[in-house]
Amino acid sequence: MNTTGSLVDVLRTQVAHLVHELAERDSVLHERTRHLRVAQALAHLGSWEWEIEGGAVRCSSELYRIFGREPGVDLLTFDGLMTAVFQEDRDRIIASINHALSGRVSYDVEYRIVRPNGEVRTIHSCAEVLRDDGGKPCRMSGSVQDITERARSEAMLRSSQEKLRQALQASGIGLWDWNTHTSEIVLSEEWKRQLGYEKTELTDSFETWEGLLHPEDRARVIGYLRDSVREHHEEYRQEYRLRHKDGTYRWIESRAALVTEADGRRIRFLGSHMDITDRKRMEQAVRESEDRYRTLVDLSPSGVFVFREEQTAYVNHRGALLLGAPDPSALLGRTMFDFLHPDYHRDVRDNAHQVLAGSVSVHSAERIFLKTDGTPIPVQMEAARIVWDGTPAMIVLISDVTERKKAEEALRVSEERFAKAFEASPHLILISELETGQLVEVNDAACQLLGYRKEEIQGQLIWDIEVWGVAEAQIRFRDRLKRAGSVRNLEVSLCARNGDVRRFLLSSEVIELKGRPCRVTVADDVTDRMRAEDELRRSHALLRQVIDGSPNFIFAKDREGRFTMANKAVAECYGTTVDDLIGQTDADFNPHWDEVEFSREKDLQVMASLQECFIPEEKFTDWSGKTRWLQTIKRPIVDDHGRFRMVLGSSTDITERKRMEEMLLQQEQDLNAALQDRERISQDLHDDVLQSVYAAGLGLEACRSMVNRQPALAADCLMGTLEQAIGQLNHVIENIRNFISGLKPRVVRGGDFVADLRTLVQTMCDASSIRCRVRIDNAVGPHLSTESAFHLINVVREALSNALRHSHATRITVSLRQLLGSVRMTVVDNGIGFNPKSVQGIGHGLENMAARAHKAGGVFAVRSEPHRGTRILLDLPKEPSAYFN
């Protein structure tokens, strides 16, 4: 029992202790809560707690105050809290809460709320998300602070800073702040912009500024800056050049002041930065203008004097030179009348008073000045009022008119000469008053051409003289003259008094004669010239028709290869017109550079040599892509002094002839190949098979002696058999020989050979436009062997083929005649010829002909020179008649 009571006392004591402890803690918690409310109220900081599952929201009293509501009214749910948020900010608040609940970011946001009285406040809210053991969000606690005044201050600050930035930018002033102790420097955005850089393109450092300095300014600027830092100058001002982003240098005026820090140290320069490049240029322009003006005055062709209070205050070098003074200083201080002829003193004194009084702006007159040695000189004097060193003065310009006086005299003499030339001119010349049209002067040529006497028309109105063939032409001439003031080479028809109408080129110009505006009209009789020009135009038109009607290409080019003339054949080949072709080159139409370069090379050859150039063949591709072959002749056209003017060319289309030659060449090559195969086969039969048979025959002949040593009966039997075998072998040999003869080309002796040769020449020449002549002695045939005839006809074929294909001849002659001990064959053409030495090793035609002549035991020769034709000779020995038996 006592034990139980003791236990109860212990429990009572502990419970009382716990109750006391809880009371103390509750008191402390209440006190802390009160302190928190006071702190929140002082800091304008409210707090809230949101139960996510239930949706309940607990808010502090300060939060209610911030939201302008009574505690416990509204805001007790999440939706109630959201209704107080500014409409445009709600979606952003909800998105921020969702991001915080997902754990991606913390909740820290600024937004606006609307109090019940309509007042809008700016709020800064922070919160953290509390999660259960499973990591699921269960509660969200946060704070709310009213930052309306701070937001307003920041907005005002931003506005003020923006206005300052705009003002600095508008005034073109950049700012810089340099700590001389740490070398830290801050460069404003405008400072960098003036040099073409964005804010982030230049680092704020002393080295950046130093690196932009002009090399010529760097030592001076850095030295002065260091002196300012060392000696603590109150003000700093320098002008120097900094490198712009585009590489140019800009003049900068930099000013700064030394600022005292809070601790009393003076280690910072605050400065401004202004681009004064334009000002520098203007100052330079002003200096240059002053220098130019001073130079112009010093170098003026007129003497320049400045008289102040009638004494010379300034005179330039020209003025001293005009008056014969050694230098301008010798004339300073002297009066104006010391230089003036006494006859003009009174007039000049009166004129000077008027100028200085402002009665006249500029006084101009001719006067006589006196040199220092007393020599008078006529001058043109111009005087005006100026201010010199703050006092009224007069500037006088004098020009020596001695030469002008001489020129006026020369003009008088010239007018006399003009009068003589006027009368002697073969052209019609009329001078009339501009306003009235009254004739003032008429020369003899005008009277003669128009059929009037001078006294009949001089003094008359030019419009009243009936010389115009058409009235409209007269009106057109008058209107044009009034509108333009002059007429040049107007073609008109004028009618003489006898009715003869002639063509004139009329020119008229306005002149001043004795102070009156007059018109001088000159007419050139071009009647005969125009008739000649009309005839020339008709001749050109006829020539144009002839040229355009030709199927050949006819053209002319200048030194640069441009077409100056071309006929329709050329234009159609290029797929254009003649007008569009003129002024263009081959390269403008032909994309094949090898053809263009070849043609240009030949043009240049003609220009350089001034000699005709014959082009046997040149390839040309027309506008459709078709390849043509042309035979062209180009000649130089020179002027009267023998200098080159242009290239004249004419081309003939030889495409069809070229195609026939290629076909003929191919047939000849095929025939030669077949003949070579037949000759090779016959040679193989002769050298191999027939020789083997001969050897067998010789073996059989050797058996005769062996058979004779046998008994008579057996020998007769064997001999009969042997004779039969030898006979059969001879028959085989004869058949092989006949077969070999059958493989050789059919060439017979006598008249048949001559007929075959004529047929060969006629067949080859029929496909060509070249005229061929055949001169063959019919008695030659029996004097040639079959072998000689075979080789001769092949030599003729080769020589004739070459002449037809390559000689570009107009005539070919083939002859065959007897000589004393030989037969001579010649093939002669009048073509372009060639140098036999230059073709050695190029082709096999000449070598084949020489080889055949050698096989036939004859002599072969070629004689040719460029532009002098070609002669092929073959001499074959005559064959004795016994050979044919």
Give structural attributes.
single chain; flat; five-stranded antiparallel sheet; Beta-Lactamase; 8 domains; 45% helix; alpha+beta
Number of beta strands: 30
Specify the number of helices. 25
Share of residues in strands? 25-35%
Low-confidence stretches: 744-751, 881-885
CATH topology name of the largest domain, in short, is Heat Shock Protein 90
Q: What structural class results from the helix and strand content?
A: alpha+beta
Ends apart, CA distance between termini:
185 Å
Give average pLDDT, whole number. 81
**Biggest sheet strand line-up:** 2-1-5-4-3
Question: Which homologous superfamily in CATH is the superfamily of the largest domain?
Answer: Histidine kinase-like ATPase, C-terminal domain
CATH architecture of the largest domain: 2-Layer Sandwich
Descriptive notes:
- The protein is of the alpha+beta class and 885 residues long.
- It has eight domains: 1-41; 44-146, Beta-Lactamase (2-Layer Sandwich), CATH 3.30.450.20; 170-283, PAS domain (Beta-Lactamase), CATH 3.30.450.20; 300-400, Beta-Lactamase (2-Layer Sandwich); 406-525, PAS domain (Beta-Lactamase, 2-Layer Sandwich), CATH 3.30.450.20; 531-653, PAS domain (Beta-Lactamase, 2-Layer Sandwich); 659-743; 751-884, Heat Shock Protein 90 (2-Layer Sandwich), CATH 3.30.565.
- Helix content is 45%, strand content 27%.
- The strands form six sheets. It has a five-stranded antiparallel sheet with strand order 2-1-5-4-3, sandwiched between helices. A five-stranded antiparallel sheet has the order 7-6-10-9-8, sandwiched between helices. It has a five-stranded antiparallel sheet with strand order 12-11-15-14-13.
- A hairpin with a 2-residue loop joins strand 19 (501-513) and strand 20.
- Residues 744-751 and 881-885 have low confidence and may be disordered.
